[in-house]
Amino acid sequence: MPFFFFLVMAFWSSVLGGAFYFVRRYVRAIERRSDQEGALTELRTRLLAVEELSETLRSEVARLESTQEFTTRLLERGASAASPPRP
Helix, strand or coil for residue 6? Predict the structure, then answer.
């Protein structure tokens, strides 16, 4: 009889211990997933900031380009008006 009791206790200890092990691993996997989602959200926020900065730089470059073209046209007109006609 004690041997049978020992066998039953060993069986249920293994079952409950294994169940506890798998539940613990499942909970840790869920926690890791939530940590990864937080990191993913942070990366998305940073990517949006980089995209906004890129758009700002693009508009500034376009503005500088148009200013440079305007300055070049003014200098060309001034140079042609200031130079005396050649005989």
Answer: helix
